[in-house]
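Hi, here's the filled form for the chain we discussed.

Project: internal
Contact: R.S.
Residues: 180
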Amino acid sequence: MKSNIALIGFMGAGKSAVGRALASATKMDFIDLDTAIEEKAGKSVSEIFSSEGEAVFRRIETNVTTAAAGRQNTVIACGGGVVLDPANIEALRHNALIIYLAADPSVMLRRVLNSREKRPLLQIVDPAAAMEGLLKYREPLYESAADLIVNTTDLSIESVVQNILAEMRKDESYNIPKHD
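And the returned structure, exactly as it came back:
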């Protein structure tokens, strides 16, 4: 029986916001992997990318993902690139319902650009083109890893949570609290 929920998807899809709301609705713990990475490294994701590079960030991400995957009754908001290493998905799959939060690229770009958070992979002249290229590569990875896909484009956070809870009620293989 799986007791965790792992939210995957591209930056701006709503993983952190939905994750917090879903954890509250289910009375589960919540962990945001990017925050856990920052705590472990003692610096922001942007600082890790700029001072140590993406490879170091990905190593830390794999360690933090493996640790989070071993928890119980936890909603895990994964970073957008967690799917780049199959070991991350394998670790999550053992004890988590993996939910891909998808959204229209223009909506995700707007959310990211309106965020206070700096996204290292979009700190370039044409972030829309960068997003398009990254999505083209990552989307099949998200889809193949997912047990469930929820499009967040036109949904409120609460609507996304309610959709997830409704799907969870249909599948008894997940030992996840189903509170409303």
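Let me know if anything looks off before we file it.
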